[in-house]
Design a protein that fits this description.
Layout: H1 14-21, E1 38-42, H2 52-56, E2 63-66, H3 69-73, H4 77-85, E3 89-92, H5 104-108, E4 114-118, H6 121-125
Antiparallel strand pairs: 1-4, 2-3
Bound molecules: iron/sulfur cluster (2 copies).
Length: about 130
């Protein structure tokens, strides 16, 4: 798995992926979407850097690493405190264009921090992504 300089390598967890695949609430298109049609959008206010998303994604879309300092400072005090407790880590999506909309990350996230959106919508709403 390729990771950024300060990101944590996350091993894929086939058991977690299997559980997520069986979840009836799984959204998306079952890996049938053209790459880049959909992207995961991470709500940095909810994300606690627990890395389940990275552990289930078949296309290596996520990296877990430090939250951007500017984004962090702009958050409400309570959210900043929660992020601080969790080491100020968050999920980034440096390979979002590889997403095939399987929906596994959405149901695997314990914080309900991920939604799938059509590619163009992500930038407009300020996702936690970096290239
Ligand atoms: S988006 Fe959810 S699953 Fe991914 S790191 Fe954040 S809390 Fe964990
Ligand atoms: S929906 Fe996209 S980002 Fe989420 S696990 Fe599937 S391929 Fe990865």
């Amino acid at each position: 798995m390729r990771v950024g300089l300060r990101s944590t390598a996350v091993k894929r967890d086939p058991e977690k992926a299997k559980r997520a695949a069986a979840d009836p609430a799984r959204p998306g298109e079952d890996c049938k979407a053209e790459p880049g049609t959909f992207r995961p959008r991470v709500d940095a206010r909810r994300c606690e850097g627990k890395s389940d998303c990275a552990a289930v994604c078949p296309y290596d879309v996520f990296e877990i690493g430090p939250i951007d300092e500017g984004v962090y400072r702009a958050m409400p005090a309570l959210v900043r405190f929660k992020l601080w407790v969790h080491g100020k880590k968050t999920a980034h999506t440096p390979r979002a264009e590889a997403c095939r909309a399987c929906g596994l990350c959405v149901v695997a996230c314990p914080e309900r921090a991920i939604e799938l959106v059509r590619g163009a919508d992500v930038a407009a709403r300020g996702a936690s992504s970096r290239k």
